[in-house]
Amino acid sequence: MAWAIKLWRSVKISFLAITVGTLLIACESLDVKPNPEAPENQKRETIFGQDGLTLGGERGRKDDSGSGGIGVNSFLWRATLDTISFMPINSADPFGGVIITDWHSPVETPDERFKMNIYILGRALRADGVRVSVFKQGRDASGQWNEAPVGENTSTDIENAILTRARQLRNETIEQ
Fold this sequence. Notes:
The protein has about 180 residues and is α+β, with helices and mostly antiparallel strands. The protein is about 35% helix and about 20% strand.
C-alpha cells in the first residue's frame, strides 16, 4: 500500500513537471514584446546616476550633463554653491542634489532672516533642473521670530541666477 502512495506521488510530480515544461516551451514561441511604458520597463533614477558610481570621472561619455561622478549636473551644483555662497550651508548632498541653508540675516535688515532649500532635479542642464524654496522670518517687538511672506518672484529670481551661473561655467569649460 505504501508503494502505491509513493507511485501516485511520483506520477503527480511527473505530470506537473511535464505540464509546466510544455507551457514554458509554448510561451517561448509567442512573439510578445515588452511594453516600454510599463513601470518595470522604465529607466530608473538611482542615487549613482545611469552609469553607477564613478570615482574617476565619467566613463567615456561626452554630453553636457557635467556630472563628473556626482548624482546631479555638476554645473548646476557648482552654480548653486556660488550663488548662495553668502549663506551658511546646513547640509549638502551632491548625490541627491539637495542643499539646505541655515538662517541668514542680511546686515541691512537685521530683523529679517532667510533660509533656502535648493533641489537639483537631474543630470541635464535644463531650465527646470533646479527648484528653490525660500523661507523668511521677521522679528517682532518681543524678539520672537515669526513667519513672514516671501516676495512672489524671489524663488524664480534665485533659480534664474543659478541657471545663468551654470551656463557661464559650462561655457568656460567648452572654451578650454
